[in-house]
Design goal:
Layout lengths: L4 E2 L3 E9 L3 E8 L4 E8 L1 H4 L2 H16 L8 E6 L5 E6 L4 E2 H11 L5 H18 L13 E3 L5 E3 L4 H12 L15 H4 L6 H17 L10 H4 L5 H10 L11 H12 L26 E4 L2 E5 L11 E5 L2 E4 L5 H11 L24 H10 L7 H9 L50 E7 L3 H6 L1 H4 L5 E4 L15 E4 L8 E2 L3 E3 H5 L1
Helix pairs in contact: 2-5, 4-7, 4-10, 9-10
């Protein structure tokens, strides 16, 4: 149960899922001070010696899988009463099932390019993993979409242990192991399961990405549902869904190569324009809707997390900061005046409310908006000073742990919230949404603090830019005032926004 410590090392925080194999908890690893997922076998499995042995064998295989698109298994261990559990990487972001449901609620189809990107990463994981193991249960629930759109596959090999349990307990009635809707014909017929079985399931997932119809809802031809799917992609999908395993793609790599050839039919988006389409004079700086911060010395960083170290005393000058992240309504005025390109997700109903923070804006686009507004993006030091203050707050509002009244995090709402929804979580100075809702661009490159201090010229050449504040999908540890991570400047994510500052010397010049 939550609050218990397992093996003297893992403190259970909360239950985050359960299935046929067991129960999964989010836990804090006392040895590394990092959050992990712990999956405990159901006690019923202990009674089946063959299933237990298979579970341990498959878990050992999964432990060897090291790929950027596969959730890493760290360790396999037993509780004092003999219950096996697996320690593994904690999945961030949302399951693909949640993403698909969002599109259904919005009554719009995912972009074909998004469907191809997701499928390509699934196949990259399988091309690697099929050297060791067949997954057997590819489905949207076992595919996680991280905030940067990286895909992670879960639960490699666990279906096989469940299969052994079913064989011994089902008696004369056989039951398909895995998820029936995503099972290949040979799986439903209790024939040999091979890598081709996984490829069939990937085909079903791709078809659902394109049509938003689950396998249980029927198989309407993709071309009847939408007209923007190229014939080459339809042919790639058709072969993946062949009833005969031998007629499918011979490998995940071959499927992936065909997918990427089909991808060339979709021209990439117009390259990002770093300046407005029409020359527009910057506005005179306006401090309405901003808060003045006097600046001064404060502690920045944290020795507890490598990316945030070292903790050091820093001085910032006085500056003004936006009370809220830049909203859709504010950005719309900028687009109208300048003719700048629309952000990604601009016409998506989930992200286009006038009082929602604008998302899908690259670092260059955010900087161009700031310049137009007579402002700039905050440095990391300015951002952390505003969030942490000189009293060294753990969270922008103080030291109270986050909850749904204070900020938008943990995918509780499932989309960015209007910027004034969480004013209870404002800083003492009145700045809102410095934790959760959207990550916020800063001016600075994402480099170790020590490198930035020692060799600023080298640091400036690093490709990524630092973002701050966590987002609507973030776990609690991303909401602390010292949290930082990097995004490439061209990133245009649905978790990524910005706010502006005006340094006092700029205003007075």
């Amino acid at each position: 149960a939550a609050g218990e410590t397992v093996s003297g090392r893992y403190r259970l925080i909360e239950k985050i899922g359960e299935g046929g194999m067991g129960i999964v908890f989010r836990a804090l690893d006392g040895l590394t001070d990092e959050e992990v997922a712990l999956k405990f076998m159901r006690p019923a499995l202990l009674a089946n010696e063959k299933a237990l042995r298979m579970f341990l064998q498959e878990a050992q295989v999964s432990r060897k899988l090291r790929h950027e698109n596969i959730i890493a298994v760290h360790d396999i261990n037993f509780t004092p009463d003999g219950l096996p559990y697996i320690s593994m990487e904690l999945a961030r972001g949302r399951s693909l099932r949640k993403v698909l449901n969002e599109y259904r609620r919005a009554r719009r189809y995912p972009d074909v390019r998004f469907a191809v990107r997701v499928t390509d990463q699934i196949l990259a994981a399988l091309a690697y993993a099929h050297r060791f193991v067949v997954h057997r249960d590819i489905k949207p629930e076992n595919i996680f979409v991280e905030p940067n759109e990286r895909i992670k596959l879960l639960d490699f090999g666990l279906a096989r242990a469940l299969e052994e349990l079913e064989k011994d307990s089902a008696g004369p009635k056989k039951r398909v192991v895995g998820t029936f809707a995503y099972a290949a014909p040979e799986q439903k017929a209790f024939k040999q399961v091979t890598a081709a079985t996984d490829l069939y399931a990937v085909g079903l997932v791709l078809r659902e990405l394109l049509t938003l119809r689950t396998p249980m809802e029927g198989a309407s031809p993709v071309e009847q549902v939408r007209r923007d799917v190229a014939p080459s992609l339809l042919e790639t999908l058709r072969r993946a869904l062949e009833g005969d395993p031998a007629a499918r793609w011979p490998s995940a790599e071959a499927f992936r190569e065909s997918l990427n050839r089909a991808k060339s039919a979709y021209h990439p988006p117009t390259p990002e324009i770093l300046v407005p389409a029409r020359p527009v004079a910057p506005r005179k700086a306006d401090t309405s809707g901003m808060v003045f911060l006097h600046g001064g010395h404060f502690l920045m960083g944290s020795d507890a997390v490598r990316e945030q170290a070292p903790e050091q005393e820093v001085e910032v000058g006085p500056f003004w900061m936006d009370i809220y992240p830049v909203t859709v309504a504010q950005y719309a005025r900028y687009l109208k005046e300048t003719g700048a390109p629309e952000p990604r997700f601009w016409r998506d109903a989930l992200y286009s409310g006038p009082d929602q923070p604008v998302v899908g804006v690259s670092w260059q686009e955010a900087l161009a908006y700031a310049k137009w507004a007579g402002k700039t993006l905050p440095t990391e030091a300015q951002w952390e000073f505003a969030a942490r203050g000189q009293e060294n707050r753990r969270y922008p509002w103080g030291n109270t742990p986050p909850n749904a009244s204070l900020c938008n995090y943990g995918d509780h709402i499932g989309t960015p919230s209007v910027v004034f929804l969480h004013e209870e979580g404002q800083t003492p100075e009145g700045i809102v949404d410095l934790a959760g809702n959207v990550y916020e661009w800063t001016l600075d490159p994402f480099v170790p603090y020590e490198l930035a201090r020692r060799n600023p010229e080298t640091a400036a050449k690093y490709p990524q830019r630092s973002v701050r504040g966590g987002c609507w999908q973030s776990p609690p540890e991303e909401l602390v005032t010292t949290f930082r991570r990097g995004f490439f400047p061209e990133a245009r994510e649905n978790t990524l926004g910005f706010r502006c500052v005006i340094p006092a010397d700029l205003l007075n010049s």
